[in-house]
Please model this.
Amino acid sequence: MGKYKYIIIGGSAGSFQVVTKILSALPKNFDKPVFLCLHRLKHIRSGFVEALSIKSTLPVVEPCDKEHIRPGKVYLAPANYHMYIELGNYFSLSTEEPVNHSRPAIDLSFFSAAYAYKSKLVGIILSGANRDGALGLKSVKDAGGYSIVQDPDECQVKTMTTASMQVTQVDEVLKTDQIIDFLLKLD
Amino acid sequence: MIGIVDFRNIVKALNDTHGIDMSNFALVSLKRRMEKAILAFGCRSADDFINKIQTDQNFLGIFLHLISVHETEMFRDPSLWRELRDHLLGKVKTRDQAIIWLPCATSGQELYTVMVILRELNANDKFKVIVTSISQRNIDFMSKGVYDLKPLEAYEANYTRYNPNGNFNDYYKVSGKKFVMDESLLENVEFIKHNIFSDTPPKNVNLVIYRNKMIYFNQNLQNKAISKIDQTLLPGGYFVIGVKEVFDGTGAKGKYILFSKNESIYKKLKS
Model:
């Protein structure tokens, strides 16, 4: 399992508790960067990162444009920007038009991460009420990465996970506790 | 999707044929927009597109418009505009005739935001607003001020957060599926077709609003843009960038201080 070096997680409605639970279960020395692209209110810039930080063992930050990606950090896509991962292991942000009515769009973050990290990437899609992320997860799988969806039976809203399963043969369908076990075994 | 080799060949053809150098643009976003442009030109391959670049007389004008990223919303980040109104724009005296520069403007949302603020301050005659864009089509678009109705609701919501007592619909008229900004808002606005990297910047500027433009450049090109702006921004003037952009002119040897951390407003020191 040591081949996976980067984790990207997408979620929308019903994903906040799941993300919080995952972040609270990771060990302090977890050294793989975790990218979060979660749908959020675009005009509210502050508060989200703080809410996620309360239970997280790792520092949670909203990256600035061109910020370098460091191990052991959780990166949250900032409000009203798309978050891209560039070749060379740094972020760039974008204000291009919303995709799937979303900015940040999960698909766009996932496409860029899949392109940059290929088989070193794990992509996870959680609960959500829109199809954003489905094609993104497919791009992770197609580039040789590992694809996981939260078990739709466990999701508050299952549109996002079932849409993902429709467009790609996902590697695993897991409940939150199993996602945590999976991540812990990566170390 | 175009491969990286094809993409590099396209970038090279643009520079060789038209002198437009995009080799230092942020890759993910440029590649995505390039793919859209290729489709919009109806080209089936990179070679087909390169041929278009080299032979189509009308290529450049259309391309520069297509490749630009539209500004997102009028009154995006309402707290920034409140800060500018209360602490900068509202304090300028008539005799100052301050110059505001909006470089690399694309679709005018920032421009109309500024002009509505000046109108509400009754301060249009205290300012000259210079809008520069590399694309004549973008300039034509901005000066017409015709926008889709769809995002209007978001603009209205932003505006209300900026000024809960005002009415945004004082500044536009609906026409079919579009809304048209009041053309008198543009009274003291000058549009200039301008390449920020190669053309001489406007002189003696007091305020530069340059939000979410440099995110499309790599660090190298960001530094070039900043040095162009620094050349023309007067001591005591202000420089505004996007909330997630980084500007390092404030260090020990820097010429700037952070005027507002939350809103990314920098002030140039009086040497």
In short: DSSP finds six helices and nine strands in chain A. The helical segments of chain A are 16-25, 48-55, 106-117, 134-142, 159-167, 176-186. The beta strands of chain A are 6-11, 34-38, 60-61, 74-76, 82-86, 90-94, 121-125, 146-150, 172-174.
